[in-house]
Amino acid sequence: MWRCHQKQERNFFPTGRPDPACRWMEGKMLRRFTEHLSSLPRIVLDEEEESDLLLLGCGAFSPLKGFLTREDYYSVLHRCRLADGRLWPLPIVLSLQAEEVKTLPTSGPVALYKANGQVLGVLFLNRVFSRNLKEEARLVYGTEDEDHPGVASLLRKGSYLAGGEVFVLKPEKTLEYPWEPEETKRLIRERGWRTVVGFQTRNPIHRAHEYLHKTALELVDGLLLHPLVGKTKAGDIPVEIRLRCYEALINEYYPKNRVLLGVFPAAMRYAGPREALFHALVRKNYGCTHMIIGRDHAGVGAYYGTYEAQEFCARFQSELGVEILPFDHAFYCYKCAQLGTEKTCPHGRRDRLILSGTKVREVLQRGGDLPAEFTRAEVAAILKNSYTQGSLAVESSSVDCGS
After folding, report:
1. Cβ neighbours of 244 (radius 10 Å)
2. What residues pair up with 338 in beta bridges, in sequence order?
3. On the CB side of 243, how many CA atoms lie within 13 Å of its CA?
4. Longest C-alpha distance within the chain, in Å?
5. Of 20, 25, 34, whose CA–CA distance to 53 is shortest?
6. Which residues contact 116 (CB under 8 A, 6 or more apart)?
7. Element (H, E) at 281
């Protein structure tokens, strides 16, 4: 049986790795893993866990070195911290059904696979432990309501967790946009940016978002436009269409030397305040010094207050390592004849153009045109054409970084 425990890990990297946060399997470890793969027990990951493993591999989830152990898991649930006190608000875990637990050793190496049989990496199992799914839902999402997409996804998972460090096979196929922290930071250095603001999104960018970006660009050197391209809920705009919208906006309306379009291949949790803090922490790993947190960041429905995410992030600002830029809800005011927020516009709701996602879909469904005050013509055309062709009629969308 192949043996490689945590204390032996350094023996497989005698010259060190380019980025110590990365968990890519290479050199002697990769050769030994390949030789002994057929004899290892296995765990099959779901789509969210695949995304998490990829992000552990590239160092995006640093300081994590793997899926949470029991001590870290309960500390994250109750304190938003790892057991050693470092800030970390979301449980990054590997779930198991009861029948899977019976196939695993108490500790040691376990091969990790996709459902299609593709090997992804190895887990050095520390311990299998039980979880209370409803307690986790209450603490992470603030509700047990199964209408919440994050809760619904959680409650379908297993009641056991496998914790331990991981090493990951680097994908042969990669995205055309930068997705690893190391590459993203290199591009930032090449541009000479000393201050960088990150913007997380799972939606097309409209005029209100553009207003936030350009306001932030008055304060910093560059903008990292960083859409999430992992699994999202039914009804969200597919990744390929969103990326076309981002490209069109950057080409026509942004100073190209001050914007970097990358992608974040994570699954969306819809965990509101906790996920907002998570997004800020992770963007620090990508080289951001600032992070835009807008209205209802990472929220869904009416589960969280409009500015609850901003208030939650503010509690940790002194130790976050990224400066939060909190923005009010932006809109177009017909009387002001420009975009603004409650802080800059004195007029009432009837003078403002505010379109919900539902209203936007209704306009697109009937083949209508989105107002120029709401979105740029290029973005409106992409969305309208995609809706007409049926490209938006999908349950969810993600980008596969696998080989």
Report:
1. 18
2. 333
3. 17
4. 74
5. 25
6. none
7. helix 273-285
Which segments of the chain have a pLDDT < 70?
A: 1-20, 358, 391-403
Catalytic (active site) residue 116: no
**Among candidates 361, 51, 93, which has minimal Cα distance to 234?**
361
Kindly name the residue from 42, 203, 258, 361 that is annotated as catalytic: 203
Q: What is the pLDDT of residue 359?
A: 78
CA distance 75 to 64: 14
How do the domains of the chain map onto residue ranges? Answer: 6-168, 181-388
* Enclosing H/E stretch for 138: helix 133-141
CA–CA distance, 24 with 27 (Å, rounded to integer): 10
Task: Identify the pLDDT of residue 249.
Answer: 96
Whether the Cβ atoms of residue 197 and residue 209 lie closer than 8 Å to each other: no
| Cα 207 from Cα 344, distance rounded (Å) | 16
Residue 379: closest CA among 261, 249, 240: 249
- The catalytic position among 23, 126, 131, 202 is 202
Long-range contacts of 143-148 (CB under 8 A, 24+ apart): 143/303, 145/303, 147/301, 148/270, 148/300, 148/301, 148/303
Q: Are 168 and 403 in contact (CB under 8 A)?
A: no
Annotation says 385 is catalytic: no
pLDDT at 392: 59
- Of 400, 395, 376, 170, the C-alpha closest to 263 is 400
Fold observed for domain 6-168: Sulfate adenylyltransferase (3.10.400)
Token output for 219: 């304060």
Rounded distance between C-alpha atoms, residue 96 and residue 294, angstroms: 35
How many other β-carbons are positioned within 10 Å of the β-carbon of residue 342?
A: 10
CATH architecture designation of domain 181-388: 3-Layer(aba) Sandwich (3.40)
Would you say the pTM of this structure is higher than 0.85?
A: yes
- Grouping H, G, I as helix, E, B as strand and the rest as coil, residue 153 is helix
Element (H, E) at 184: helix 181-191
